[in-house]
Amino acid sequence: MSIPFANLSGSLCRPLVLFVWKKKTLNTKNTKSGPQSSRRKSREIFQTDTLPAYVCGKINLMAEFPEHGGDVLTESETKLEKPKLFKVLLHNDDFTTMEFVVFVLSYVFQRDEAESVAIMLKVHNQGVGVAGVYPYDIAYMKSNKTMNLAKSREYPLLCTLEEE
Predict the structure, then answer these.
(1) Domains along the sequence of the chain with CATH
(2) Which of 62, 92, 103, 131 could form a disulfide with 88 if both were Cys (CB 3.0 to 4.6 A apart)?
(3) Among 134, 133, 157, which residue's Cα sits nearest to residue 147?
(4) What is the pLDDT of residue 134?
């Protein structure tokens, strides 16, 4: 532990350590055999070095802020609204297989087998079934993914969004 000392003007001096980056070149021997083995590789690295220093006089640790004539700044509260939710609806048609609808519900909407079958039967019997309720961005993405899967397998499955 270093002890503070007084300089010639009588003010108290405190020890301080400065960290400085310095560049260093390393020379390494090439490990290859043959006529090129005498070559040396060099690379530059940066490492820290410490320098002792002393700070004499008054140390001001707090930044001073200008006065603003006594006005008080208040923090305004921002309230976030919950996003609107949208239903992703699957519509019945005569060509899309029940197995494909179950696959879409489990793959795109992460439903388990029992839920997928129940939703598929609701779509088959009532004409429309709710695959899930999501914020708009997620609902739109899942709807597009469903439509692209159906198109790639040449099914005319219709998937729409409806605000809840």
Answers:
(1) 5-30+41-56 (no CATH), 85-163 (3.30.1390.10)
(2) 131
(3) 157
(4) 97
